[in-house]
Structure formats: structure tokens, C-alpha cells
Amino acid sequence: MSGFDFIKWSFQYSDGARTALVDVDRSLNWNELEERVQIMAEQLRGLGLPRGLPVVVRGVKGIDMVVAMLACATMELPYVPVDKSLPLLRLNAIRKILGTDVLIGELSDDFSICIHAGKVVRQRAPAFRSVEVLRDPIVYVVFTSGSTGEPKGVQVTRGNIADYVRWLSGSPFAFSRDDVFVNPSAFTFDLSVFDFLMSLHVGGTLLLFPADEFKSAEFLRQRLAPLRPSVWTSTPSTLALLAMNRDFNSAEFSHLNDFYLCGETLYPTLVKRVQERFPHGRIRNTYGPTEATVFTTHVVITEQILEKYSSLPVGVVKPGTTIHIDEAGELLIEGPNVAAGYFARPELTAEKFRNGVYRTGDHGWFEDGMLFFTGRTDRQIKLHGFRIELDEIDAKIMEHKLVEQSVTLALKRDGEVKKIVSFIKLGSVCEDALAQIQRYLVEALPAFMIPGIFRLVESLPYNSSGKVDHKQLLNQL
């Protein structure tokens, strides 16, 4: 018996008194969650919104956002998660793309209708544009950065979600209603969809805490550990940051056995560090763009894998989906998990989605039935006539015993690559650390791949998706 069945799109729980959601301020059991969702669904129904009209859900990660997202989804109104911290100019750009005038959560003068604190606030007469309703209804639209500076909204449908949930409901995952899911990612980052869907689908408990909370040792000990999380999901960078805290270990978190990592390259150094803290933990590497519904591959990183491969695999492709590799080495994804294109961007959709196949812009190869991720097309640069993979430089730097994290970027002027810059966070303090690393790279890499600038940093900046913020790093130069 599930909690909320994402295939039937209805509540199916058997024990309404069990805890469904926990956030910073409060918790809800399954009875309370269903009641809250029904109340909001009735409010939306009373507005007479056209079917398929996107609704912006704005706020911080918490119970209110989950209630709003579920209410929208059950009413076949695509929800669009927006973090409270998003600049108003960016919010307004998203609103114009969507053509919507409805917002749930933090108030904004740019929207005609807002549902805030349980009340409908009509600020002026709404002006809705006509909406194309797909045969497979859109559940949510997640906006990602576009190369032109205009955000692009990925449309994920009920069919996409049903396929994803069916896969995760079987082996080798084995989730149950006893699982407690935690993920620092904001709802604006599609990795948050994983635990949102699966905790509700199996009737487990979903912990909803903003990313900043996880920086506090007191929060880990006094708030998070007593809730007994069993499933962790994040980017490798976020987990690496958490692993710096000595209280993050199996003694304090005795129920935490599964670590799902996605969104960035996973390096063996982090795997080994987490394994030292959690000897019985399963570290699961995954891969997948937003346009293919969260992640598409999966593998448990075992000792055998660590011994055999210098670059870790991102896993076996999920059943029913195929990843093709074209002549240029680009990964193309085909299957029922491929999204319905970009909202109101027909030309970009036609360019990236062709006959049910999504062009990822990522590169990789297959070995032993598993996918290995080389990097993104935009992580490949050309300098002095040489084609260079920045991720390859990072991988070499990360092999050095003194290094904890490395981020290598291209420094550009007027669109042209001028230098390679590596930002390095040390794991061990040493007087001549930088000189040691440079000597090692001279032996490990061709001269044209040696970074022109090295910067030792005490910490790395992160964006709202839990990934290292490259722009902030380059601004330090």
C-alpha cells in the first residue's frame, strides 16, 4: 500500500496517523496531508482555471510547497516550483514565458491571483492565455538556465512520472514505508523530485529542510539524526561538504544506508571518505538530465568497481530506455522518461527533441554494460589549438593525496578561452601543497593541459541546486 499513488494519482495510505512530512516548523501525518491537499484543490477549482494552466509555487522547501504541488498535480494544473530567493526579474521572466497569472505562496504584485496562507488574494482580473493541453498531461515545469540567457522550462508529464516510479518501485531499490528520505536540494532542482515522488509513493516520510540548515553541526545532531533518515540524495559536492562534519557518521545516523548521488562527477576519493564513515552504506551513482526525468541510470559503487575503474561508472540504463551514442560521442536518450520538450519554446524543442529522442549535450561511453560519463560538450574547450576536457584535469588533480575538491574552469575574454584555472580545496594542510600538486600534474598531463592559474580556496561556493557555483569562483579572479 502506498501513500500517494503516482500511477493512479490518488491517496492510497492505510495508516493515516503515520508521519508523512516534516519541515523546520512542523509535521503532517497522512490524514492531515490529504486534508490540506483537498482544501487547496478546492480553492484552485473555485478559481475556474483552464486545464493545463501552469501555476507558480513560490516559497522555501517545506510542507506548504508539497501541499501546493500535489494539489496542482491532482487538478492537472502543471506546478512550477520557484524558490523564495529567486530575483523578481527572473520570476517575472518565467511568468511571461508561462503566460500565467496564478501564484501559490510568497506574494508578488506581478500575479493577478495569489493563494497565500490558505487565502485567495485577487489583486486584479486575471488574463489567461490559451494553453495547449497535451494528451499526456504535464505535471510540472522546471526551469533551467538557457544558453541565450532566457530560462527554459522542461515539461514533465504523468507518463514520464509513471514510468520513473515503476522503475524505482522494483529491484534494486526496495523502498518501503519505513524509509525516511532527506535531500537538501531545493524544489527548483529536479533532483528533489526523486525523494518527493518515492517517499510519497511508498508511504514513507519526507524530511523538508533548506540546504543552509545542513551546514550546522547542531542541526545534524539535534534535529536531523533523531528523525532517523535512511535515504540520502544530493549532488556529490553537497555530500562532500557534509562529510567534513565529524558528526556525520554511522554512529549518529545508524539508519542511513543509501546515498543517491547525481548532477556532478562522483570521484573515488569521496566514495572512500563516505565509506569510512558509513561502512555498511550503499553509495549509488546515477546520471540523467532534467529532460529525461531526474536520472536514467543507476549503479551501486562496490569495492570491485573502485578497484577496476579509475573513472566511476554512472550505471546501467533503466529498463525501457535506450541511450545511444552518436558519431561525435554525444549521448542521446530515447524512452518513456523523455520529457515533452520546453514550455512555449517550439524551436528549441525541435532542435533538442527529435522523434522521442533527446540530445543531451553530454558525452560518454559504455563498458561492461555500464555508462561512463565523460562530461558536457560545454566542458570541452579549445586552447592554443588543443581540444581539452576540463573534467579530465579535475580527475587528475583529485587523484593527489592532498586534494579534497577541485574545480577547473576556462577563463574567457570576449568569448575566447585565454587560460585554464583550477580552484583547489585541500584535505590536508601542507606548506608546499600547491608546488606538490603542480609537480604531479607535470608528470600526469601534457603541457597544454596544465592550468595557467591555481587558486587554493578554503571553501567552494554552491548554488541553489547544490552544485559548485562556477560564476562565483571566476568572479574571485
Describe this structure in words.
This protein is of the alpha/beta class and 477 residues long. The chain folds into 2 domains: 4-367, ANL, N-terminal domain (Rossmann fold); 384-475, GMP Synthetase, Chain A, domain 3 (2-Layer Sandwich). 27% of the residues lie in helices and 29% in strands. The protein contains 13 helices and 28 strands. It has a 9-stranded mixed beta sheet, sandwiched between helices. A 5-stranded mixed beta sheet has the order 6-5-7-8-9, with helices on one face. β1 (4-5) and β2 (10-11) form a beta hairpin. α1 (30-46) packs across α2 and α7 crosses α8. It is globular and about 70 Å long.
How large is the count of helical segments? 13
- Indicate the mean pLDDT: 92
User: Major sheet: order of its strands?
Assistant: 4-3-13-12-14-15-16-17-18
Number of domains: 2
* Fraction in beta strands: 25-35%
Question: What is the CATH top level name of the largest domain?
Answer: Alpha Beta
Low-pLDDT sequence parts:
none
What is the correct CATH architecture of the largest domain? 3-Layer(aba) Sandwich
CATH topology of the largest domain: Rossmann fold
- Coarse morphology: globular
Structural classification: alpha/beta
